[in-house]
């Protein structure tokens, strides 16, 4: 069996006095699709934000592709990672946010091509071509010169996905990407994610409230409750016949 | 009282002051903005000493009067420390730019802080360095927020330049005062014309401010 591309070991996270995560152990295999479900406030989002280096774990370690994300060795001593180390390790990770977070001062095309040019030092022409290609793939080839404020929520979220994909990540993180959308716009975003998932190359972690969607595309579903992974398994196991009562009542609320 | 012949006598005299007013203004604008950015960024620095020191500068210069600062730089400092700025020009420019720089540094700081946190996070997710995040994502958005306020301070700086007449610089107001002291009955005409001069000088600045405002409205609509 291949080595996991991401490995969480006993990861804890507190915000002040509030303990959000109380010991997460998780292996993510290359190309594996994992959906994370659970009541709000259970720390779902925090799990992937720590992997994206947006929050630092209070305790425990996250290893990405064999490299410790939040710690580095210097003179044989383990110490907190500096920015240089974080940048080296997080380069293969991309993320899509609940509120899109597009850059409002840049056009759609510029939103996509800025990071490849400045971060990955790709030539402008090549970055532009690939960005156009990616935007066409998410169905926005006719909006290249538009600004984010001119797009609908669903379109914005598709741009956000193209922007992340142009960086060719090995791991993609989706943070409740449909939660801020009007109901009629959800499907166009899910369709794009499904397309990416079916290509099968990337590992994906989806924090989501879309249960059917999670069931549909995930290889594995995690149910987070009370700061720990309370239940996990294949979608059939988790959505089908789990004996975990918290999970049952959580799913019940969704299926009313 | 205000007659055409009086105006035609006074006008050329005041004209002599324009050069000083305009050069002091331009130098103050450049130094003032420079100061605003330096102090604004220092106040956001991770270095506590730098942050506190800049904070002190901002509060002192905002909390005391510009004219007293001007007199300090021009009269008091040379005597106290034997430290001479070399000319009344630099004393004037420094006083104005340190004073307005203090005010505008708060705009710089506030604008940068008010760029949504999600922007920094998105830039981090694209693996940008902290410098790249500032240069490519945060700063361009912050500048658009700064522009309208910066425009207002342009006009205020123009008006503040008239204080340099008090340290003997021969600007528009200085010539106006000379005319008035030689013939008090001309005071209404003199000061009317002085107002007109300042207003005409302000016109391009007002126009520029409008331009900056409309530019800043483009592409910052936050999500």
TrEMBL record, chain A:
Its main location: membrane. Signal peptide: none annotated. It comes from the Bacteria. It is found in: Cell membrane. SMART domains: AAA. One of its GO terms (cellular component) is plasma membrane. GO terms for molecular function: ABC-type amino acid transporter activity; ATP binding; ATP hydrolysis activity. SUPFAM superfamilies: P-loop containing nucleoside triphosphate hydrolases. Residues 6-251 form the ABC transporter domain. It is a peripheral membrane protein. Belongs to the ABC transporter superfamily. This is Ectoine/hydroxyectoine ABC transporter ATP-binding protein EhuA. The lineage of its organism: Bacteria, Bacillati, Bacillota, Bacilli, Bacillales. The gene is ehuA.
